[in-house]
Specification:
Strand content: over 45%
Oligomer: single chain
Structural class: mainly beta
Number of strands: 16
Helix content: under 10%
Largest sheet: 14 strands, antiparallel, barrel
Shape: globular
Distance between the termini: 46 Å
Length: 287
């Protein structure tokens, strides 16, 4: 039970997260996503639109995002298309050059077809800055759904360097996920009790251009992603994730285009070989 609550992260495997924007200044954000599902028995394609901001005031960082999604479903077995609304909040405070603390909150405001409707997640973490090049973060999440809870421990290491005109950031992330079933329900019926997934991320800058790549290995389900700005609250067990992105800065505006590919199994029916392709456009305005 102790491991379920504080996580099992004595390892230092690889990890990554999607090719999200790297914040230096305060900024406003708009993103649009288009998803297509292959071999799914429930979904065909979907669209997401989100808005957000990242505001830096002295040693504090305030970040939020609100996203609205619509996914076309296969009827039957489903009765209607999926509609979702989600809210993401994050606060970080840098005490000094060595330590930064962060707190996260996620709310599934609306999900018209899933039992995870209304679920909320809470996170708390600490970053240790070894020096200007290397930092490590540990964040513990707790997600509260009506019929089950999820404990997730994230351990991330970032390494920054510069090679001639290229600025490079390499990241390693490990996610340990533990499911605590309170009531018998279809979402966790064929899920494992524990998951360990790892990833590696590369992000680079050259002049006004941005490049990124991500690779996830190991299974995960009901995971919190993107440093607390994505939540997977449907019973889909992801096996592999690969992503690539490119972007360019135009004055105070950054435009990025990303492609994400994922292999998954739909639970509880154990429908394997589901493929999800996601194209995401992100626009940031720095102020």
């Amino acid at each position: 039970m102790i491991l379920k609550r504080i996580g099992l992260l004595a390892l230092l495997p690889l990890s990554i997260e999607a090719v999200e924007f790297q914040t230096v200044h305060s900024s406003a954000q708009l993103y649009i996503e288009n998803k297509t599902f292959t071999n799914s028995k429930q979904k065909t394609d979907g669209r997401i639109i989100g808005i957000g901001a990242d505001v830096h005031i002295d040693a504090s960082e305030y970040r939020f995002a609100y996203e609205k999604g619509h996914t076309d479903t296969i009827q039957p077995p489903l009765d209607e298309d999926l509609r979702t609304d989600k809210l993401f909040l994050r606060y970080a405070y840098r005490f000094n050059d060595t330590f930064t603390a962060n707190a996260n909150y996620i709310n599934v405001l609306n999900d018209n077809i899933a039992i995870t409707d209304g679920g909320a997640a809470y996170g708390a973490g600490l970053t240790y800055h070894l020096n200007k090049k290397i930092s490590a973060n540990f964040t513990q999440y707790y997600t509260d759904y009506e019929d089950f809870n999820v404990y997730q421990s994230d351990f991330r290491i970032d390494y920054k360097t510069k090679i001639e005109n290229f600025r490079i950031k390499l990241s390693s992330v490990t996610k340990y996920i533990s499911i605590d079933e309170e009531n018998t329900n279809p979402f966790t019926k064929n899920a494992q009790n524990d998951y360990l997934t790892t990833a590696i991320e590369l992000h680079s800058h050259y002049d006004s251009y941005h490049f990124g790549a991500v690779a996830y290995f190991g299974k995960r389900v009901f995971a919190i992603m993107n440093d607390g700005f994505k939540i997977q609250h449907h019973p889909m067990e992801f096996h592999k994730t690969f992503a690539a992105g490119v972007g360019k800065t135009f004055g105070n505006t950054i435009v990025r285009l990303q492609y994400i590919y994922q292999d998954a199994t739909e639970l509880p029916m154990n429908n394997e070989d589901v493929r999800i392709e996601n194209v995401r456009l992100i626009v940031n305005y720095k102020f």
